[in-house]
Write a structure and sequence with these properties.
Shape: globular
Largest sheet: 8 strands, mixed
Radius of gyration: 14 Å
Distance between the termini: 38 Å
Number of strands: 8
Order of helices and strands: HEEHEEHEEEE
Structural class: alpha+beta
Helix content: 25-40%
Strand order of the largest sheet: 7-6-5-2-4-3-1-8
Length: 139
Amino acid sequence: MVDMNLWENYRKICFIAPFSAPQWPAYAIVTAWNPASREVGIRRNTRRQRALWRVIAASPYMMAMGPCWGSSPDESWRESSLLLASSRGESIALAARFGQNALYWVEQGELWLLPVLMKGIPLHMGKIESHWIVRDSGW
C-alpha cells in the first residue's frame, strides 16, 4: 500500500544545482539521505552519501554525473542527491541498497517518480526543466 501523504510529498520536488538540467537520454536522481524517509541527521546523512559515491565509483556500470539538491519547493527541506548515468534497473537496485522509498528517473527530458521500497506505480511528473532551479550558492 502506498502512503499517500509521503507519495504526495515526493511529488512536490524541485532540484537545485549550479548547472541546467542535463539533456542526456536517461538518468536517475538518487540520494542516500534519510532512508525510508526517516530523518537521521546531517552527520549520518553525510556518511551515507559518501558511501553512495564509493559504490558508484566502484561500479563499471554507473557514473555520477553531478551533485544537486532535491528540495521542497519552499526549500524548507532538502537532501543531497546525485545525477546518475546507469540503467533504470541498476538505479532502482542502488536506491534499494540505500533504503530509499523512491527515486527520480529522467528519460527524454521527462521526469518520473519511481517507487523503490514503496509499493506503487511510476508517476509521470512532466518536464524536468519545470522542476529545476539553477543556482550557484550553496556549492
